[in-house]
Amino acid sequence: MRKLLTIAGCAALMACASHAGGLYVPFVVSVGTNATATVTQSKPVLGYIEEVYVENPSASGVTSAVWFAIAPAAGTNLTETVIYTNATQSASVMARPRVTQTDNTGGNLSSLTVAERFLCVGDSATFGVTQSTSTTGLTFKAWLKISQ
Question: In this predicted model, what pLDDT tens digit does every residue of 124-133 receive, in sequence order?
Answer without folding.
Answer: 999 999 987 7
